[in-house]
Amino acid sequence: MSRSCYTCRRRRVECDMSQPPCSKCTKAGLECFQKRPLRWVQGAAFRGKPKTASAKITLVSSTVMDKSPLTSNGDILPGTSNRANSTCTDDLEDPSDILGIPPGLDDPSIIRLDKTSRYYLYYYSKCVCKLFIMYDSNQNPMRKLIPAALEEPVLLMSVVALSAQHMANTARRFYSSEGTTYAGAGSADAHHSALLYKHQAIQGLSRAVNDARLCRRDLTVASAFLLIFLDLLESGSDNWNFHLEGLKKLMNSISQTEGSHTTRQGLEATVQELRDFIIRQIYLIDTLGATCTRPRLLSRSAFPQSVMPLQMSVDKAYLGCPDDLLDALRSFSISRDAIATPELVQNTEVYPHIQKVRAVLDSTRNFDCHSWAAGLSRPDSSIRSMTLDKLAQSYKLGSLIYGTRVLDALTGSVTSMSDSLNQLIDVIDALKSDDALFKCVLWPMFVAGLESREESQRQSVIDCLEKFWFETKCINVVNAANILRRFWKQEECGTICSSQWIFNIGQIEGDWLLI
């Protein structure tokens, strides 16, 4: 940390300014805050017994406040953009000052929202949108959903559920025991709200998918898409694969002429941009998700042809994994799934997969991370090609390790990956200085953990996961650490073969989405 943490300053003790949490807070058993945490006040939080009505869209007569980070297009107003490197509650010290989304949205429908919904919408814009994009900017597709959400009740419920769950997670601790309840009245109320909003979103989606017209709307797809991110905040192992499979079916049913049904003019460009963003992210989630699940859990349905030609831009992409590496991982997973098929018993059937995996591994080794980074669209000149290069390297090394383990399973060998592992750990450690890109490397981090055999390597991975949690508050990160600890324990007991993790990782208490 560059300066004393807020907790130590509040306690009037000298902070050692170590990596959060600092040792003084850890020793005292206190939550280590770098900035002043959000304070709940009357009107912003639920008090006492949770009230069901607070999580509904209601008509209220209150006027909307004057402070907002948004314009009518969902853009960030000057002075409020790109806060990805700071604690999201820095500017929310007194929620009574910013309850609601003000007239900047230029939308009368905002007045119909109760104060709680407006607050969560604001929190979504300030704190949640930047989590699911490489670099936050006015072009963030997640933030541009806000005007559309005001037109689509189901989408609005998905947005505020995501926001409320993230707020609830801020009270959790990285080392808290599994199944720990949400501590504090504010956190418990936010979690209660998240469940209510999620319930309403799922009910609305259930009605929409059974309607021939509604199921073809891009905004319906967007509503379901956000539920995958909600699962990352909740656990990373609940229903993400069901949401993903449903999304793939919905996307394939939407025609280019029928996809942009909106109820207000002016959203057509936003909806088209949203469609492109969702197509790319579904492909990414489907590809990376398959690596940490049981073989053949996910379908191999075709994707729209527009998924690959889209030019990636750092302010319109989620994780930044290069397309060539995604294709390689997809190919490796197909071969892994084939090995798990009982019918594949003859060497003549295995040989084509061996040849394919070797060819893709060679192509992956030759992938030029520097050229990829240099060719990316970067709206901000301060975004350095060097750090983007390291991001690509982390996925390249992770892909090589995964592909090599698939080849080992095909050939019956065990290849030492110590050099690649050490390189991967070094690259991830180097990315810690860039919070925006560091939050994009959970998958390579998890692969490094699965390959780690030395205690120093394992501790390095856990330390990185803790920092990742500090930056994102996604509970799938906490679960990733717990999975690794169980995996290491089973390896030490000899109950699993460590080099076969490509098969058994999906059998450790669930099929995980660790991105």
From TrEMBL:
Q: Does the keyword DNA-binding apply?
A: yes
Quote the Gene3D superfamilies the UniProt record gives.
Zn(2)-C6 fungal-type DNA-binding domain
This protein's source sits in the domain of life called Eukaryota
Q: Which residues form the Zn(2)-C6 fungal-type domain?
A: 4-32
Tell me, in one coarse class, where this protein mainly resides: nucleus
Keyword annotations: DNA-binding, Nucleus, Transcription, Transcription regulation
Location(s) in or outside the cell: Nucleus
One GO location term (cellular component) = nucleus
Q: One Pfam family name from the record?
A: Fungal_trans_2
Asked if the keyword Transcription regulation belongs to this entry, the reply reads yes
Q: Name one GO molecular function term.
A: zinc ion binding
Q: Which CDD domains match?
A: GAL4 (cd00067)
What is the protein name given in its UniProt record? C6 transcription factor (Acr-2)
Q: Which taxonomic lineage does the organism of this UniProt entry have?
A: Eukaryota, Fungi, Dikarya, Ascomycota, Pezizomycotina
